[in-house]
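Dig into my protein:

:::
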Amino acid sequence: MKLFIILGAVNAFLSVALGAFGAHGLEGRVEPKYLETWKTGVTYQMFHATGLLIIGVLLGKLPASSLLSTAGWLMVGGIILFSGSLYVLTLTKISVLGAITPLGGLSFLAAWVLLIIAAVKYL
């Protein structure tokens, strides 16, 4: 429980910091399409930071379940793969990194499905 709340808060903090960096540090230094790519990474990182917070709270309220823990770790992995690949893509313009991004998206989708199953089963 505590770990996912901490990971959620850390990722929310990083999302705000990286969003500010993108808006103020990258504007005019990278092409507009890459700035949009950066913003997409920031947006998805914040959404899933919130998901991690929700999972942390649910772990404290519901019976112990690997469904929620697995969902949390999939969100962490998704943030690294999805948002991380978009950040690196923006800074390096190495387009092959775009092939990693969908793996993060699949991690996000799987995490949300597990959260749905846990809600149906325990709430």
Q: What stands out?
A: The helical segments are 2-26, 32-61, 66-92, 101-122.
